[in-house]
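FAQ

Q: What does a record look like?
A: Structure on top, sequence underneath. For example:
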């Protein structure tokens, strides 16, 4: 009777060793540095939920029931060049561009809005399961966050889930993933109610780096929901553009190691 017990103990030891090895693979994320290059005006009434930069202008999704909008904004001045109001029952969330179409999430309905980029004409809707927080386009699929530690990769035609990945660092799950931007093969994600942007390997879900922006935008609006939220990337200048909900400025950052 001793041998089965011995083999069982060996099995438990091997399992523990395997688990320890897997945990060890999740290294502590690098801490990124940044240089504040410049700051530009931002509408303090805009509760930014999604931000992107394309051909020299911002496209922005703002939230709030009865306040949600889609906007085209001049970066240097913060001037709103074009705006479309969402239905009063809709709460705008993440925003992504694919070709000449803008895709805007709605928080709780499981329905998103599809627009012509030039005219802002609403040309269709799309459906997804669960809540919609952040949205990014990686060149072949959409990436959707829902406030959990999970990212979903969606077929661009049907919005069916192609695969999912759970986001982890050396301590475990990393949740509250909000606004997303796909930059040079990595997913950059705001973490709601924090001053952090995490840099995620989309294949493994591992958090490779963390950018802490606690020093930006002081003093901030007194509203506790006026948090860091909004990431856009300029591949020409290689500057990261960041803002927050009802922040007065967009900050242009040069990221270092």
């Amino acid at each position: 009777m001793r041998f089965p017990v011995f083999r069982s103990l060996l099995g438990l030891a091997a399992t523990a060793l395997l688990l320890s090895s897997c945990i060890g693979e999740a290294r502590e994320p690098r801490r990124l540095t940044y240089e504040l290059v410049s700051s530009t005006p931002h509408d303090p009434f805009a509760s930014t939920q999604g931000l992107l930069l394309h051909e020299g202008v911002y496209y922005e999704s703002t939230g709030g029931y009865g306040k949600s909008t889609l906007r085209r904004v001049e970066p240097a001045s913060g001037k709103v060049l074009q705006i479309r109001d969402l239905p009063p029952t809709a709460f705008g969330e993440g925003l992504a561009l694919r070709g000449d179409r803008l895709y805007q999430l709605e928080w709780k309905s499981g329905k998103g809005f599809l627009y012509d980029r030039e005219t802002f004409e609403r040309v269709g809707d799309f459906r997804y399961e669960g809540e919609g927080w952040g949205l990014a386009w990686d060149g072949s699929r959409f990436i959707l966050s829902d406030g959990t530690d999970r990212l979903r990769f969606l077929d661009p035609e049907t919005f069916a889930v192609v695969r999912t990945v759970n986001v982890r660092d050396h301590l475990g799950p990393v949740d509250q993933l909000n606004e997303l931007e796909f930059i040079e093969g990595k997913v950059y994600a705001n973490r709601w109610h924090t001053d952090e942007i995490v840099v995620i390997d989309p294949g493994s879900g591992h958090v490779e780096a963390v950018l802490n922006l606690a020093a930006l935008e002081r003093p901030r609006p007194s509203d506790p929901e006026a948090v860091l939220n909004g990431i856009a990337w300029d591949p020409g200048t290689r500057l990261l553009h960041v803002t927050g909900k009802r922040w007065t400025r967009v900050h242009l950052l040069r990221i270092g190691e």
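Q: Is there anything notable about this one?
A: The radius of gyration is 20 Å.
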